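Hi V.,

You were right to ask for the full record rather than a summary. Here it is.
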Amino acid sequence: MAPVSRKRHVSSAVAEQQTDKRVKIEPNHKVEEILQSKKHANAVYDIFELLQSEKVADVVGAAGACSRLFCCLLQRREMFQGKVPPEEEAMSGHYSPQEKYSIFMRHQYSSCVEMLLELLDHELHQIAESGLCCLMQFAAAEGNHPLLDLDWSEHHSFPRELILAVVNKLLSKTVDSSLLISRFQEFLEMDDVRYYVMSSVRENLTKVMDRSRGEVLPVYQSNVFTLMSNISIPNQESELTSFMVKQGGEWVASA
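Predicted structure:
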């Protein structure tokens, strides 16, 4: 019988341990740990690991966990508000432990948004849909608990940049987004979302047309048509009553 390489045996054992570790990652349990104690903040990386998994169940579960975690942190005001300093500067600067935590989680929130936006291009609709729903839950939470300093003249703060990022992904030049746009139609029933989506489409169209210089973009044009076809414009007599972001008075669109 050929001798078994000890090195190979050890490597296999390590691989099995790593596999077991991945299997044991339960995203909702990680969320509980983070929300219960700031000392578990690094557990967010375990959730992100699942968010980048090749398994559908892992990604969908991680997206749900991200929604629960960051929406809760937004509600608690536990993420840094305003212009966030670089993470390296915060960790080495003269910040309190609470400030360092809030800055750290704000950066993790930004990383999470980037990963979710990437999921919108995924070939599997279930994964793309989970990313879209999580991003829109972020938008609602961020709108009601703004991360940016509000201008005194604004009645409310709508997460315009996040909605623009979502629209830019839906209006892909290379990926047919028709199925995902159909899922997005649910959010277009809200008056404020519809307004800012239309504004984002206009901004996107201007940039793409300027750069394309007359080039035919069939996939992009199809996505634009599909998205615009899903937008129903209310008549002038209709009252604006459905909003994603809570209103404190008469609705006024911020620029």
